[in-house]
Amino acid sequence: MHTPRIFTSPGMPGYAYSGFSSKEYKDSICYAITSGAMPYDECLQAIRVCALELRSTFNEIGGLDGAFAANVRRMENLLHFLDEQSTPSADPTARERVLCDMIHRFYDVLYGCVTAPCNKDVARFKDPSFVGNGAQLQIAKACGILVNAIAIANCFAKTVAVQSVSVLGEHEVAEAFHVGLALTTYVDVKFSALRRCLNSSLVPEDREHRRAILRVVQHNAELSRKIAELVDYAIPGHFRSRTESCLKNILDVIETSSTVCEAMVHGDDCAQRRLSLATEARMVLSDNLDRYVSGTVVGSAAQISTSICVNALIKALGCTLLVYREYATSGGEEHPFACSLEKCIQILRDKVYPKVFSHECMGGGGLQLAHRVRLRLCKAADELTAISPELLLNPQVSGKLHRKALCYLAEASCAWKSDNREHFDVPEAGESSSRQPSTSVGAAGMGGSQASYTPPQDPGVMPHAYAQPSTSGLGSTSSGQVAPRVSYISLPSLGSMAHVYVQPSASYEQPSTSAGVSFSLGELQVASHGSQTPSDDDLEPSSKRSRSA
Q1: Are 463 and 510 in contact (CB under 8 A)?
Q2: Half-sphere exposure of 395 (CA within 13 A, CB side)
Q3: Three-state secondary structure string covering 162-196
Q4: Where is this region: Disordered (predicted)?
Q5: Checking phi first, is residue 403 left (phi over 0); if not, alpha (psi -120 to 50) or beta?
Q6: What is the pLDDT of residue 421?
Q7: 16 - beta bridge partners?
């Protein structure tokens, strides 16, 4: 019941969580706490239930890695600690101390889980006894329950805190939300590039080895998505560095594991363009994560600039991918809304970004390129405006992400026209009849010429099911000239990389959805031993290719 399942949507397979490991479970408990319906002793009981499930899980997988055997002992100690609290103190200070102690213990176990050597052992992910028996899903379940336990304990700790908790500002909330968007774009786009290494693999043994590498990447990407749920300004500053440490270790595994596949797609132009976009997304992720941990909302003095246009594209892609994942998780990728979302993703990833990147690196392109990029941005917006937000799956969350995606597309269009204003004084011949006018408020910025960049206003996105919706608007984002960038693919570890300044441009609330990071891993299940080589750019099944043509 509590073990995640692998959903096998051709366009975006991944892990779907349930029971104690799901975000829905965490949100329901936190809502009960903040509404006053769950007293302190019941909160401790909820944490105890999580600890019992973790002990059982670690007993099952203890033989896989010494880290899991050590975690069995940690759970025993935690359960003994909880037994000692059977008569809870009424003193708020004592309660807060008990909850913080438990959070530290859970973080110790979480770090041991995500850094276990088996998470990056390619040989393990080729072994049917490991993957076939779902060992990687047991590890993901443990991480999911640990994340939920930390969030639940922190949620109650805020209610008993002796010192008042300051109200979060819109820029603070935006930084945490943007971490999730950059992570989503980074992992999905990177994986869509890496899986193209299967195109050139004709020998069955070599093909299976490449699949195993991609399974390692997928597994760690799913772990990073789950850990990223702890990126929340409601988490005290002294715990944020522990979240960062877990995330950095996972992302370093992804980079290291990807090296072999990156070499295999060196001559693949499509893969190289996607890797370039993934590189920029990780740079943005690094900067946002650093600011989240430090508690600042401005970048450092020495930075390598990511342009306003590319930054907006990364955020728009992140929002769109999160909405699409709702359909992929439920097997609804044939739904017309899912088809529109998929087309929008393809346009931004494979049509818009390569042209923007080329222009920023090498300059030139002239009027034809300027209008081509703008029209493709308009086409992406059209795909989104064809969707009725109130009819989306999980509309309370997906509808807000949908509107934010339109705002980010408008932001990208405004920035692009500002950088190429000399080409937008006169509309291109025949331009007005090339597309239907958008009726979406969010896409209004996609239209006429503009001499300077003015960011659109942006509604918020719910951070949790139990949080109050934001009523504030967007902050302003100033534009500026961006120095030409040099294309590169591979990155050093996140801790040593150069920082990127991303000007905060929106107030938001974090979406309450389990869809954080997406993948394209249709042929990577252990049970699948087919050797067919995908031939199209997006490695989609024939039904999707005909639909997207």
Answers
A1: yes
A2: 7
A3: CCCCCCCCHHHHHHHHHHHHHHHHHHHHHHHHHHH
A4: 425-481, 525-549
A5: alpha
A6: 87
A7: 5
Alpha-carbon distance 156 to 43, whole Å?
A: 8
The alpha carbon torsion through 429, 432, 435, 439 (nearest 10 deg) reads 160
Contacts of 436 (CB under 8 A, 6+ apart): 382
Q: What angle do CA 90, 150, 67 make, to 5 degrees?
A: 125
Provide the 8-state DSSP code for 62. T
* Structure-token pair, residue 75: 């759970």
For 476, other C-beta atoms within 10 Å of its C-beta total: 11
Give the C-alpha distances (Å, rounded to integers) separating 14 from 100, 211, 230. 32, 14, 20
Q: Tokens representing 304?
A: 């390598």
Ranking 49-58, 253-262, 386-395, 426-435 by mean pLDDT, the lowest is 426-435
* Whether the Cβ atoms of residue 460 and residue 509 lie closer than 8 Å to each other: yes
Say how far apart CA 319 and CA 343 lie, in whole Å.
Answer: 14
**R_g over Cα of the chain:** 23
> Is residue 548 predicted with pLDDT exceeding 50?
no
- Burial of residue 167, with CB atoms counted within 10 A of its CB: 0-12 exposed, 13-18 middle, 19 or more buried: exposed
DSSP character at residue 386: T
Tokens of 495: 């801790």
- Dihedral sign for Cα atoms in the order 278, 280, 283, 289: negative
Phi-psi category of residue 194: left, alpha or beta, with phi > 0 → left and psi -120 to 50 → alpha: alpha
Q: Name which residue leads in pLDDT, 544 or 133.
A: 133
Q: Are 96 and 190 in contact (CB under 8 A)?
A: no
23: number of Cβ within 10 Å: 22
Burial (CB < 10 A; 0-12, 13-18, 19+), residue 147, is buried
Provide the angle, in degrees to the nearest 10, between the axes of the packed helices 92-114 and 135-160.
Answer: 160
Using an 8 Å Cβ cutoff, are 252 and 299 in contact? no
CA atoms of 373 and 367, how far apart (whole Å): 10
CA atoms of 156 and 85, how far apart (whole Å) = 15
Tell me the CB-side half-sphere exposure of residue 532, using CA atoms within 13 A. 11
CB 226 within 8 A of CB 147: yes
Question: Directed axis angle between helix 204-227 and helix 92-114, to 10°?
Answer: 170
Q: Which two tokens stand for residue 252?
A: 């370093």
Q: Which two tokens stand for residue 292?
A: 């989240």
Nearest to 284 by CA among 256, 315, 257: 315
Question: Does residue 467 surpass a pLDDT of 80?
Answer: no
Closest CA to 360 of 419, 403, 313: 419
Q: What gap in Å lies between CA 64 and CA 83, rounded to an integer?
A: 29
The amino acid at residue 297 is V
Asked if the model's pLDDT at residue 151 lies above 90, the reply is: yes
- d(CA 271, CA 191) in angstroms, rounded, equals 10
Q: Which helix (H) or strand (E) holds 452?
A: none
Counting every residue, how long is the chain? 549
Query: Which residue type does 370 have?
Result: A
